[in-house]
Specification:
Elements (H helix, E strand, L loop, with lengths): L15 H7 L1 H13 L8 H35 L6 H20 L7 H20 L14 H5 L15
Length: 166
Amino acid sequence: MSPPETSPGWENSIATEDFYELDFYAWVQQQAQFLHARQWHHIDLPNLIEEIESLGKQQRQELRNRLSVLLGHLLRWHFQPQQRRRSWLATLRVQRRDILRLLDENPSLKPYLEEALADAYANGRDLAMGETNLPEATFPLGCPYSLTDILAKDFYPGEPSDLLKG
Protein backbone atom coordinates (compact mmCIF):
# COMPACT_ATOMS: atom_id res chain seq x y z
CA MET A 1 0.00 0.00 0.00
CA SER A 2 1.35 3.40 -0.83
CA PRO A 3 1.12 6.42 1.39
CA PRO A 4 -1.51 9.07 0.77
CA GLU A 5 -0.97 10.97 -2.43
CA THR A 6 1.19 14.05 -2.28
CA SER A 7 3.59 13.92 -5.17
CA PRO A 8 4.10 10.84 -7.34
CA GLY A 9 6.80 8.50 -6.10
CA TRP A 10 7.69 10.53 -2.99
CA GLU A 11 7.53 7.40 -0.85
CA ASN A 12 10.29 5.79 -2.91
CA SER A 13 12.72 8.48 -1.82
CA ILE A 14 11.97 8.12 1.90
CA ALA A 15 13.47 5.44 4.12
CA THR A 16 10.88 3.27 5.89
CA GLU A 17 12.10 4.48 9.29
CA ASP A 18 11.56 8.11 8.23
CA PHE A 19 8.15 7.21 6.84
CA TYR A 20 7.24 6.13 10.39
CA GLU A 21 7.86 9.70 11.58
CA LEU A 22 6.22 11.47 8.62
CA ASP A 23 2.92 9.57 8.28
CA PHE A 24 2.23 6.99 10.95
CA TYR A 25 -1.05 5.76 9.48
CA ALA A 26 0.49 5.19 6.06
CA TRP A 27 3.48 3.48 7.74
CA VAL A 28 1.10 1.07 9.53
CA GLN A 29 -0.68 0.27 6.28
CA GLN A 30 2.65 -0.26 4.54
CA GLN A 31 3.92 -2.56 7.30
CA ALA A 32 0.71 -4.61 7.12
CA GLN A 33 1.16 -4.96 3.38
CA PHE A 34 4.76 -6.12 3.84
CA LEU A 35 3.65 -8.68 6.43
CA HIS A 36 0.84 -10.01 4.23
CA ALA A 37 3.26 -10.31 1.32
CA ARG A 38 5.92 -11.85 3.61
CA GLN A 39 8.37 -9.20 2.47
CA TRP A 40 10.44 -9.51 5.63
CA HIS A 41 13.36 -7.45 4.27
CA HIS A 42 11.11 -4.35 3.98
CA ILE A 43 9.71 -4.47 7.49
CA ASP A 44 10.72 -1.64 9.81
CA LEU A 45 11.47 -4.05 12.66
CA PRO A 46 12.63 -1.61 15.39
CA ASN A 47 9.54 0.59 15.07
CA LEU A 48 7.23 -2.39 14.63
CA ILE A 49 8.54 -3.93 17.87
CA GLU A 50 8.04 -0.61 19.67
CA GLU A 51 4.44 -0.35 18.44
CA ILE A 52 3.58 -3.93 19.41
CA GLU A 53 4.98 -3.37 22.90
CA SER A 54 2.94 -0.18 23.22
CA LEU A 55 -0.26 -2.09 22.41
CA GLY A 56 0.19 -4.14 25.59
CA LYS A 57 0.85 -1.00 27.60
CA GLN A 58 -2.36 0.53 26.23
CA GLN A 59 -4.39 -2.41 27.55
CA ARG A 60 -2.86 -1.98 31.01
CA GLN A 61 -3.56 1.77 30.86
CA GLU A 62 -7.16 1.15 29.85
CA LEU A 63 -7.59 -1.17 32.83
CA ARG A 64 -6.14 1.46 35.20
CA ASN A 65 -8.30 4.22 33.70
CA ARG A 66 -11.51 2.23 33.96
CA LEU A 67 -10.70 1.18 37.52
CA SER A 68 -9.99 4.82 38.40
CA VAL A 69 -13.38 5.96 37.15
CA LEU A 70 -15.13 3.05 38.84
CA LEU A 71 -13.39 3.69 42.16
CA GLY A 72 -14.07 7.41 42.00
CA HIS A 73 -17.77 6.71 41.54
CA LEU A 74 -17.81 4.06 44.29
CA LEU A 75 -16.28 6.59 46.66
CA ARG A 76 -18.80 9.23 45.66
CA TRP A 77 -21.63 6.71 46.08
CA HIS A 78 -20.31 5.70 49.50
CA PHE A 79 -19.47 9.09 50.97
CA GLN A 80 -22.09 11.33 49.39
CA PRO A 81 -25.31 9.27 49.52
CA GLN A 82 -27.56 12.33 49.50
CA GLN A 83 -26.20 13.30 46.06
CA ARG A 84 -26.63 9.94 44.31
CA ARG A 85 -27.93 10.06 40.76
CA ARG A 86 -28.97 7.51 38.17
CA SER A 87 -26.00 8.65 36.08
CA TRP A 88 -23.65 7.47 38.87
CA LEU A 89 -25.37 4.08 38.84
CA ALA A 90 -25.02 3.91 35.05
CA THR A 91 -21.30 4.79 35.25
CA LEU A 92 -20.71 2.09 37.86
CA ARG A 93 -22.44 -0.52 35.72
CA VAL A 94 -20.75 0.49 32.48
CA GLN A 95 -17.26 0.59 34.00
CA ARG A 96 -17.73 -2.81 35.63
CA ARG A 97 -18.94 -4.37 32.39
CA ASP A 98 -16.11 -2.81 30.40
CA ILE A 99 -13.48 -3.93 32.93
CA LEU A 100 -14.82 -7.48 32.93
CA ARG A 101 -14.91 -7.52 29.12
CA LEU A 102 -11.33 -6.20 28.99
CA LEU A 103 -10.24 -8.97 31.37
CA ASP A 104 -12.13 -11.63 29.38
CA GLU A 105 -10.47 -10.46 26.16
CA ASN A 106 -7.05 -10.13 27.85
CA PRO A 107 -6.86 -12.79 30.61
CA SER A 108 -3.15 -12.13 31.10
CA LEU A 109 -4.13 -8.77 32.65
CA LYS A 110 -5.72 -10.52 35.65
CA PRO A 111 -2.45 -10.89 37.59
CA TYR A 112 -1.90 -7.15 37.05
CA LEU A 113 -5.18 -6.22 38.77
CA GLU A 114 -3.73 -5.85 42.28
CA GLU A 115 -0.97 -3.56 41.04
CA ALA A 116 -3.42 -1.58 38.90
CA LEU A 117 -5.73 -1.19 41.88
CA ALA A 118 -3.16 0.80 43.88
CA ASP A 119 -2.65 3.36 41.09
CA ALA A 120 -6.33 3.41 40.18
CA TYR A 121 -7.41 4.01 43.76
CA ALA A 122 -5.15 7.04 44.11
CA ASN A 123 -6.65 8.45 40.90
CA GLY A 124 -10.20 7.52 41.88
CA ARG A 125 -9.72 9.17 45.26
CA ASP A 126 -8.56 12.36 43.55
CA LEU A 127 -11.56 12.22 41.20
CA ALA A 128 -13.95 11.79 44.13
CA MET A 129 -12.37 14.67 46.04
CA GLY A 130 -12.66 16.93 43.01
CA GLU A 131 -16.26 15.98 42.28
CA THR A 132 -17.60 16.10 45.84
CA ASN A 133 -15.64 18.94 47.43
CA LEU A 134 -15.52 16.80 50.56
CA PRO A 135 -12.39 17.10 52.72
CA GLU A 136 -9.47 14.87 51.75
CA ALA A 137 -9.67 13.12 55.14
CA THR A 138 -13.13 11.81 54.18
CA PHE A 139 -11.58 9.29 51.81
CA PRO A 140 -9.37 6.48 53.15
CA LEU A 141 -5.73 6.52 52.00
CA GLY A 142 -5.96 2.85 51.03
CA CYS A 143 -8.74 1.29 49.01
CA PRO A 144 -11.51 0.23 51.41
CA TYR A 145 -12.99 -2.27 48.94
CA SER A 146 -11.78 -5.67 47.80
CA LEU A 147 -11.32 -6.42 44.10
CA THR A 148 -14.14 -8.94 44.37
CA ASP A 149 -16.49 -6.24 45.68
CA ILE A 150 -15.30 -3.60 43.23
CA LEU A 151 -16.14 -5.84 40.27
CA ALA A 152 -19.35 -7.35 41.72
CA LYS A 153 -22.45 -6.09 39.94
CA ASP A 154 -24.42 -5.92 43.20
CA PHE A 155 -21.84 -4.09 45.34
CA TYR A 156 -22.79 -0.51 46.23
CA PRO A 157 -21.03 0.69 49.40
CA GLY A 158 -22.62 2.75 52.12
CA GLU A 159 -26.23 3.09 53.04
CA PRO A 160 -28.91 1.47 50.85
CA SER A 161 -30.36 3.42 47.95
CA ASP A 162 -33.79 3.53 46.33
CA LEU A 163 -31.98 3.86 42.99
CA LEU A 164 -31.10 0.15 43.23
CA LYS A 165 -34.74 -0.96 43.41
CA GLY A 166 -36.49 -2.15 40.30
